[in-house]
Amino acid sequence: MSVEAQQGIATPRIPAGLGGLLPALILIGLFFVVPVLALLLRSVTDPVPGLQNYAALLGDGTYARVFFNTFLVAFVVTIVTVLVAFPVAWMLAIMPPALASILFGIIILSMWTNLLTRTYAWMVLLQRTGVINRGLMAAGIIDQPLPLINNLTGVAIGMVYIMLPFMILPLVGTLRAIDPMTLRAAALCGASPLAAFRRILLPLSLPGIAAGGLMVFVMSLGYFVTPALLGGTSNMMLAEMIAQMIQSLLNWGLGSAAAFILLVVTMALYALQLRLVGSKRAPGGA
């Protein structure tokens, strides 16, 4: 019998199952919690203790414009990505498996292509003498080249293309899980294709839309390469501003405050998505 048992001292034990999670918890603590706490501490202590960095970000019109550009582009990119990705995902869900695998591989392959290369390709396509403007002018649709680069329009176009796979992947999984007999039953009951889509297919696909939409929106908020190359300095977004503050201006306090605001918004959106989607799933799982 051990000394602790003889003296009646309770030996603390690790709860069952926690031992296997301990390495992961340590990694999360070291590489996520500690950096976030350091970021928060830097934002309220540099250059002097206080909330002056947050006051400057939220009270200055220049910074407010950067926040507006960031959330506007993220919102537009998310909406357009959903509208484009939904029919593609539906096509992949209902087509023969062999053909669907080929198209699915092409979509995945686009994700493996270097991001900088894809962005430079869009710079060539969107410029005033690019393929898009020349094609529209040759078709007689426009008389003068459209300004599709060095503005938020070019940023949105390039980011929608890059974000499409991240929206298609969760949507395909959700749509494939829907029983086709449900739509056939609706058609036999006299429902029009639009009514079947609005009352059956769309509600059942909302979890995939919510998951993909959140992923696209959050990634769009923090994107750097595409906005920097397609948007220019006059249409700066939050990630560009943070990089400029830290790398060029060496203003760690203001940059840390901006990064922490972005993190808080991201976590709040994730919590909202969990609450909304979870509340819709709860009655079905009961």
TrEMBL record:
Domain ABC transmembrane type-1: 67-273
CDD domains with a match to the protein in the record: TM_PBP2
Residues spanning the membrane: 21-41, 66-86, 148-169, 209-230, 250-272
Keywords from the UniProt entry: Cell membrane, Membrane, Transmembrane, Transmembrane helix, Transport
Cellular location(s): Cell membrane
Domain of life per record: Bacteria
Entry-linked PROSITE patterns: ABC_TM1 (PS50928)
InterPro entries membership: MetI-like, MetI-like_sf
Pfam families, per database record: BPD_transp_1 (PF00528)
Membrane topology designation: Multi-pass membrane protein
Family: Belongs to the binding-protein-dependent transport system permease family. CysTW subfamily.
Protein name in the entry: ABC transporter permease
Species whose genome carries this gene: Mesorhizobium montanum
Taxon lineage: Bacteria, Pseudomonadati, Pseudomonadota, Alphaproteobacteria, Hyphomicrobiales
